[in-house]
Amino acid sequence: MAAEQFQFPPLYQLGYVVGDIENACRHYEAVFGIGPFSPPAEVDMSGAVFQGKTVETKIKVSFAQLGAVQIEFIQPVSGENPYFEYLARNGDGIHHIAFETEDMAGAKMHFAKLGIEPIFYQDMGFMEFVYFDASEVGGTMIEFIDWRKPKQE
Q: Left if phi > 0, otherwise alpha if psi is -120 to 50, otherwise beta: which for 93?
């Protein structure tokens, strides 16, 4: 996929980083009527690459649908990750916008041609994600997610 032909897929997700995930879920459900949120789950992301080095890190996540867009809350738990950095710099807020893709190589190539390297990524087997820092203009990261489809036998 050539850079000039790259098309962003439809918006898939708004990712918020929060200091207290349980409180964020309760607040969005009660005040905005968004939810229900999934029960917060701890995710071990050890083996992810953050700023060029492999890290041991854990987060908590919770999800809700708002029409066609998924709302994700992320609370950093331990280790090095972009979420701790975001909280320290900004407090709670929108950390990233995410796009679902089946062409992760094309997305990476598009940003590479622009001179933008991934800052956080991992292939978890069932899915692969990659973050690009687009915060200079707009204040958010861009994430691409490739949900692996089970192979048909």
A: left
CB 117 within 8 A of CB 111: yes
Amino acid present at 56: E
In this predicted model, what pLDDT tens digit does every residue of 78-122 receive, in sequence order?
Answer: 999 999 999 999 999 999 999 999 889 989 998 898 888 899 999
- Euclidean distance between CA atoms 113 and 59, whole angstroms: 31
DSSP code, position 117:
-
Distance between CA 123 and CA 105 in Å, rounded?
13
Which tokens go with 108? 């990476």
Structure tokens at 67: 């029409």
The encoded tokens of residue 88 equal 């320290």
pTM over 0.85: yes
Decide: 130 and 136 in contact? Cβ < 8 Å. no
